[in-house]
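$ ./design --mode recover --in tokens.txt
reading tokens...
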């Protein structure tokens, strides 16, 4: 059964995401119970596919490495090893697999009935582990404070997700209206996605030795600071010209006014001037 999930997740047939979602949901429902998959049965969305994958990988103890290294031949060899045999006909393999799957379904279904709410996310803090162990850079003195803020946001997003997920399950159990279930599911998915977005930022910073991904809004400025800090003198001069043009373009009173863009370009221009002054002795105050 576990190998079947790995096969679907690996998607060797390159199926479209919606078909992968349906395959995962079909395989997951018997071992999770209808209450735990109700909001998935309301229909596919990209966010729900991410959520479903995380729940399944968590429950079945499947890592990204397992998925990346999937090989159909290995599944057969694993089954032979489990059975303690070296020679099986295809029919015997299918029969043995069916028996193993049936036993696994019964075990996992019983487990799901005893623990009806599955959080689905790998959240070390909430499960008693420490994020600071997973992301050692958080312990360093030069760690940007914004990452510590994001860790707090990550924990909050997880707790909110778990709460809304539980509310959705309870509402489904009470046969509430679908619009209420949809709202609860949407709120749960929003918090789930926020948790994942922050995890992506933390993972990237750790694995790139201090580079900032910068897709999360709170890290946009830090990303800009890194980019400008790595520029040569010539690149800074060109970037300054571009920044000044953009400040004018997005400035208030200009056609196509965009305050957010103006703020971003003013920030960029200020950093560029600062780097030119400090690194290359430019003085823009001289007339």
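writing sequence...
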């Amino acid at each position: 059964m576990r190998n079947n999930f790995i096969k679907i997740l690996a998607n060797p047939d390159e199926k479209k995401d919606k078909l992968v979602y349906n395959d995962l949901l079909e395989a997951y429902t018997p071992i999770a119970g209808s209450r735990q998959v109700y909001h998935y049965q309301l229909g596919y969305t990209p966010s729900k596919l991410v959520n479903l994958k995380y729940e399944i990988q968590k429950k079945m103890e499947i890592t990204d490495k397992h998925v990346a290294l999937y090989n159909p031949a290995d599944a057969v060899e694993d089954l032979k090893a489990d059975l303690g045999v070296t020679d099986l006909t295809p029919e015997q393999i299918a029969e043995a697999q069916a028996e193993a799957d049936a036993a696994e379904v019964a075990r996992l279904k019983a487990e799901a009935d005893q623990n009806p709410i599955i959080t689905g996310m790998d959240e070390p803090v909430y499960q008693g582990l420490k994020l600071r162990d997973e992301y050692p850079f958080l312990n360093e003195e030069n760690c940007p404070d914004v990452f510590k803020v994001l860790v707090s946001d990550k924990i909050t997003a997880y707790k909110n997700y778990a709460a809304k997920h539980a509310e959705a399950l309870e509402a489904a159990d009470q046969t509430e209206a679908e619009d209420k279930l949809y709202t609860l599911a949407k709120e749960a998915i929003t918090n789930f996605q926020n948790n994942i977005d922050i995890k992506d930022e933390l993972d990237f910073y750790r694995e790139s030795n201090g580079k900032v991904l910068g897709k999360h809004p709170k890290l946009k400025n830090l990303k800009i600071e890194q980019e400008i800090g790595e520029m040569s003198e010539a690149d800074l001069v060109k970037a300054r010209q571009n920044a000044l043009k953009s400040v004018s373009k997005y400035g208030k009173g200009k056609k196509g006014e965009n305050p957010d863009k103006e703020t971003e370009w003013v920030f960029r221009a200020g950093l560029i001037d600062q780097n030119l002054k400090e690194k290359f002795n430019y003085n823009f105050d001289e007339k």
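exit 0
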